[in-house]
């Protein structure tokens, strides 16, 4: 086994939006800082949120790739190693270990993302769309089919169901919860969205859960715990994402829901950092683009010598459901207060206020999304 120790680059693990955005931010500040990016996938640069809208826009998977890893390596002046899995981190020697080589680092950044939660079913029966390669396989399998079952009523499941409906597919969505987007919306604000999707043709089954799958590709039978039997040609599993923390935990880093970092994105090891979907920042695990971009800017500045800390304003989540626009800024889980609602035809607004009257969260659907800017101005910073 050889060891790359002649120079110690800054090593980034992961080629998703977090990894590449950090590399780009560093390059604007330090054109010659040695950078090595290691990824277990193909390394294409693309925008992950576009995966849930590409079908209705008639965009082929290859059109979503902004740049190949070769293009990125040349444009950024960095080394990129693709299809490489890091087995472990040796924080004492400041090395990452791959199958056939070790790489020494000056600083290590974990941009590992998150992985889908899986159903206990044959892997050939389910499609979890978590990256561009997953999406390419899904699009190939979708050809010639009309009936699609989506398991999960969270953000990914709802956006994929909307995209499929807009593209003319017969879509059934099964959700364990009483209403769609339970982590973002109270039921009163979710109702207009559900009505709009059902009007568009969605077969919505709430308070239902998976029991077993039988059949073969293109002809699946799904039994729910209620005993209901569903027939479908293709199944999307969208039960949520789990931050990838195993590599960090095995290296002795502090982890809870995500890899714990401070406001400089620093883990419990001062030479290792984390950002993006895998990171837990001051108790927040924020799997959205805006906090990722802000984290990349802050970390790049810190790694190139600036004394900065991450600050985040209120960051409402925009759900890509043109049938019924949705914007939500959920209150902190530990927040004390109560919801109040203004429900009108084609518009639903919920506000969560503290006992003192401070706005701590809101949820908007339909025409009420026009109130977003005004309500954001009343919110306290997310991280300050």
Could you walk me through the main structural features you see in this protein, from its secondary elements to its overall organization?
This protein is α/β, with parallel strands linked by helices and 384 residues long. The chain folds into three domains: 2-48 and 66-115 and 241-303, FAD/NAD(P)-binding domain (3-Layer(bba) Sandwich), CATH 3.50.50; 118-237, FAD/NAD(P)-binding domain (3-Layer(bba) Sandwich); 325-378, Enolase-like, domain 1 (2-Layer Sandwich), CATH 3.30.390. Helices cover 22% and strands 29% of the residues. It is built from eight helices and 27 strands. A five-stranded parallel β-sheet has the order 6-3-2-10-21, covered by helices on one side. Strand 26 and strand 27 (359-366) form a beta hairpin. Helix 1 (17-29) packs parallel to helix 7. It is globular and about 60 Å long. The protein starts with a strand and ends in a 6-residue tail after the last helix. Residues 1-6 have low confidence and may be disordered.
User: Under the CATH scheme, which architecture of the largest domain would be assigned?
Assistant: 3-Layer(bba) Sandwich
Total of helices: 8
Distance between the termini: 46 Å
Q: Structural class given helices, strands, pairing?
A: alpha/beta
Q: In what order do the strands lie side by side in the largest sheet?
A: 6-3-2-10-21
In total, how many beta strands?
Answer: 27
CATH superfamily of the largest domain: FAD/NAD(P)-binding domain
């Amino acid at each position: 086994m050889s060891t790359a120790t002649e120079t110690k680059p800054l090593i980034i693990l992961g080629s998703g939006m977090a990894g590449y955005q950090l590399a780009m931010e560093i390059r604007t500040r330090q054109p010659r800082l040695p950078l090595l990016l290691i990824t277990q996938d193909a390394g294409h640069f693309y925008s992950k949120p576009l995966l849930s809208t590409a079908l209705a826009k008639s965009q082929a998977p290859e059109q979503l790739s902004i740049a190949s890893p070769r293009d990125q390596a040349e444009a950024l002046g960095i080394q990129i190693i693709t299809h490489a899995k890091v087995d472990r981190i040796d924080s004492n020697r400041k090395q990452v270990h791959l199958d056939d080589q070790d790489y020494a680092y000056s600083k290590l950044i974990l941009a590992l993302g998150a992985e889908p939660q899986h159903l206990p079913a044959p892997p050939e029966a389910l499609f979890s769309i978590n990256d561009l390669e997953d999406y390419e396989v899904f699009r190939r399998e979708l050809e010639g089919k009309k009936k699609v079952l989506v398991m999960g009523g969270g953000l990914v499941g709802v956006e994929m169901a909307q995209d499929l409906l807009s593209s003319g597919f017969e879509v059934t969505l099964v959700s364990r919860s009483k209403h769609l987007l339970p982590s973002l919306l109270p039921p009163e604000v979710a109702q207009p969205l559900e009505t709009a999707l059902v009007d568009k043709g969605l077969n919505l089954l709430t308070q239902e859960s998976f029991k077993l799958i039988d059949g073969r590709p293109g002809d699946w039978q799904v039994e729910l715990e209620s005993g209901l039997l569903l027939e479908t040609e293709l199944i999307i599993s969208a039960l949520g994402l789990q931050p990838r923390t195993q590599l960090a935990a095995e290296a002795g880093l502090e982890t809870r829901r995500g890899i714990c970092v401070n406001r400089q994105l620093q883990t419990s090891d001062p030479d290792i950092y984390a950002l993006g979907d895998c990171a837990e920042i001051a108790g927040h695990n924020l799997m959205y683009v805006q906090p990722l971009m802000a984290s990349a800017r802050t970390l790049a500045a810190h790694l190139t010598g600036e004394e900065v800390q991450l600050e985040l304003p209120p960051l409402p989540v925009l759900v890509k459901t043109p049938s019924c626009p949705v914007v939500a800024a959920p209150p902190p889980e530990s927040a004390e207060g109560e919801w109040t609602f203004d429900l009108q035809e084609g518009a639903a607004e919920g506000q969560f206020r503290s006992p003192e009257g401070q706005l701590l969260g809101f949820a908007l659907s339909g025409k009420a999304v026009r109130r977003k800017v005004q309500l954001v101005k009343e919110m306290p910073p997310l991280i300050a």
